[in-house]
Amino acid sequence: MKGTVLEAVVEDELPRGLYAVRSEDGRRFVASLPIRSRHSIVKLLRGDRVMIEVSPADTSRARITARAGD
């Protein structure tokens, strides 16, 4: 089951490889990187625009799928 895809901005880096992101409509999510991205050197900075997929089970959680514009 796929979740909703949104564009968001990275607000902060959290412990354990998580990021606080805010969508264009103002909602805040705790987002993680996919496992394949964690194994390569990927660093997101505050202000980076990313595409996220919101979890259908917990709407406060999301997965970062790509940098917006990449």
CATH topology: OB fold (Dihydrolipoamide Acetyltransferase, E2P)
Q: Write down the domain tally.
A: 1
Helicity, as a percent range: under 10%
Question: What order do the SSEs take from the amino end to the carboxyl end, as H and E?
Answer: EEEHEE
CATH class category label: Mainly Beta
Main pleated-sheet profile: 5 strands, mixed, barrel
Unreliable residue runs: none
CATH superfamily, called what?
Nucleic acid-binding proteins
Rough shape? globular
Q: Count of helices? A: 1
Q: Gap between N and C termini, in Å?
A: 25 Å
Structural class: mainly beta
* Number of β-strand runs: 5
| Arithmetic mean of pLDDT | 88
Rg (CA only): 11 Å
The fraction of residues assigned to DSSP E strands is over 45%
Across the major sheet, the strand order is 1-2-3-5-4
CATH-defined architecture: Beta Barrel
Mind explaining what this structure looks like?
- This protein is mainly β.
- It has a single domain (5-67), classed as OB fold (Dihydrolipoamide Acetyltransferase, E2P) (Beta Barrel), CATH 2.40.50.
- The chain is 7% helix and 49% strand.
- The protein is built from one helix and five strands, in the order E-E-E-H-E-E.
- The protein has one helix spanning 35-39, and strands at 5-14, 18-23, 28-32, 49-54, 61-67.
- It has a five-stranded mixed barrel with strand order 1-2-3-5-4.
- The longest helix has 5 residues, at 35-39.
- The radius of gyration is 11 Å and the shape is globular.
- The N and C termini lie far apart (25 Å).
- This is S1-like domain-containing protein.
- InterPro entries: NA-bd_OB-fold (IPR012340), RNA-binding_domain_S1_IF1 (IPR006196).
- GO terms for molecular function: RNA binding; translation initiation factor activity.
- Residues 1-69 form the S1-like domain.
